[in-house]
Amino acid sequence: MTKRIPVEVIFFVGLILMFFLDGSVSLVFSNELYAFPNAMVPYLTVLWLMLSMIFIDRSSLRIGLWAAVIGFIFDMYYTGLLGVFVFIFPLVIYLGRLIFETLPPNFFSSFLVYFIMITLVEGISCLANVVVGLVNISMTDFLVNILAPTLALNLVLFAILYFPIERLYQAFNR
């Protein structure tokens, strides 16, 4: 008799995996992703949180709480500026859930919600860095050199990973 793995375990393992893949992909492909003046930031953690929000029963897992926890760890491990992603990740998940509830649950509406979520994550994090004084960037440079390439990369990653992650959750939700 085989034991059934709870979907919560799959969520947690995937969240940790995507968290470390964020940094690994950034490191391995740093010459391509961060070629001056452009920057393409992979947000695989946000992708996992968003797809989990869609594919897991909302009552069984508190994704907003997990978003805050992984945001805190993300801040400590990657940015060194504590407090930015600990608020951004849960805020984006909350807003994404509100938007997604008004749309039909399919690939295209998920694509639209993810587009909005990545725009918010990158915009708010850049704004926080400007306020703190870590960066000095014009709105045009931000839109052209950071937001557009980041959106392109993350939307391609979304298109590649959406159906495999959907199948994974379907297999463990039964």
TrEMBL record:
| Cellular localization per UniProt | Cell membrane
The GO cellular component terms are:
plasma membrane
Q: Which Pfam families match?
A: MreD (PF04093)
What keywords tag this UniProt record?
Cell membrane, Cell shape, Membrane, Transmembrane, Transmembrane helix
Q: Where is the signal peptide?
A: none
Keyword Transcription part of the UniProt annotation: no
What the entry lists under InterPro entries is as follows:
Cell_shape_determining_MreD
Main localization is membrane
Domain of life of the native organism: Bacteria
Q: How does it sit in the membrane?
A: Multi-pass membrane protein
NCBIfam families, per the entry:
shape_MreD (TIGR03426)
Question: Which family does the similarity line name?
Answer: Belongs to the MreD family.
Give the protein name, as stated in the record. Answer: Cell shape determining protein MreD
Q: What is the lineage of its organism?
A: Bacteria, Bacillati, Bacillota, Bacilli, Lactobacillales
